[in-house]
Amino acid sequence: MYSFGYFRPSSVEEALTKLNEAPEAKMLAGGQTLLPTMKQRLARPSDLIDLAGIESLRGIRREGHRIRIGAMVRHSKIAESSDIRQSLPGLAALAADIGDPQVRNLGTIGGSVANADPAADYPAALVALDAIVHTHARDLPADTFFTGMFETALDEREIITGISFPLRPLCAYRKFPNPASRYPLVGVFIARALNEAGDHERVSDAVRVAVTGAGSSVFRVREMEKALCESFTPEAISEISVAADDLNSDIHAGGEYRAHLITVMAMRAVADIIAARSNPSLVR
């Protein structure tokens, strides 16, 4: 490691002031990506601005028909939250399967989302659940937030303060993990919207299917969404496949294999939602 300044603000305003004073500074959330890259000399910030001391970035709370998660909430807290497990079970399951216990107890949702790793789990959840990323300056819909590999719509000195999700008790996430890193070779998150009567909303966005790990950034599979709106069964999408040409191909899996996994993981996620639909304890 090399010499750098360290600042632990107690408010978002203090953090922004320090960012403006030190243009080469980096914000530190959970540190699961930034600290290893610093050790490898792939990043050399002049200062670290540790967001862990900002109380307003913590907490999980229900706001009407939405749940808001603070940017500094750790993965383990999301997995353990009773509100999230009832209203967003797929998100709780996703958080419970990120990395290992050390990562889950240090990593934060805001840090992961801001990093926009193409193999991260959260992007699929945000896009499928039609989430909103809140910053100190504006609100950004998840559909337009992720713009490419490690790229987002955030400005250079913009701080994520939280992420809010509509209540979607019928949602599920399935991934095929790399056995070493636990990053998904393919992860598929499916969310099915309900209207106030508890029935499937017959609109184009009633079902959303988002894929992570397979390409350079998270993406939706519109053909699957359309098929599932007409018939919400695994069989409805069994013959639908994503073109392999634009998918990642590396030592872990080729593009064609990832394309196959997308369909398999999507079918399993649908089956999970169907099973959950019969659970009378679901919150609507």
Give the topology, please.
Blueprint (H helix, E strand, L loop, with lengths): L4 E3 L4 H10 L4 E3 L5 H6 L7 E4 L9 E4 L2 E5 L4 H6 L1 H6 L1 H8 L4 H6 L2 H7 L6 H7 L3 E4 L3 E3 H4 E3 L2 E2 L7 E7 L4 E7 L6 E9 L14 E6 L6 E2 L1 H9 L24 H23 L7
Parallel strand pairs: 1-3, 2-3
Antiparallel strand pairs: 4-5, 5-10, 6-7, 6-10, 8-9, 11-12, 12-13, 13-14
Characterize the structure shown.
By secondary structure, the protein is of the alpha+beta class. It has eleven helices and 14 strands. It has two domains: 5-51, Uridine Diphospho-n-acetylenolpyruvylglucosamine Reductase, domain 2; 60-277, Uridine Diphospho-n-acetylenolpyruvylglucosamine Reductase, domain 3 (2-Layer Sandwich), CATH 3.30.465.10. The strands form four sheets. The chain has a five-stranded antiparallel sheet. A hairpin with a 6-residue loop joins β11 and β12 (184-192). It is globular, with a radius of gyration of 19 Å.
Q: What is the compact description of this entry?
A:
With 284 residues, the chain is an alpha+beta fold.
The total count of helices amounts to 11
> What is the mean pLDDT?
93
CATH architecture of the largest domain: 2-Layer Sandwich
Distance between the termini: 50 Å
Query: Helical percent range?
Result: 25-40%
Number of strands: 14
Give the CATH topology of the largest domain.
Uridine Diphospho-n-acetylenolpyruvylglucosamine Reductase, domain 3
> What radius of gyration results from the CA coordinates?
19 Å
Mind summarizing the main beta sheet? 5 strands, antiparallel
Q: Could you say how many structural domains there are in total? A: 2
Residue share in β-strands: 15-25%
Low-confidence stretches: none
Order of helices and strands: EHEHEEEHHHHHHEEHEEEEEEEHH
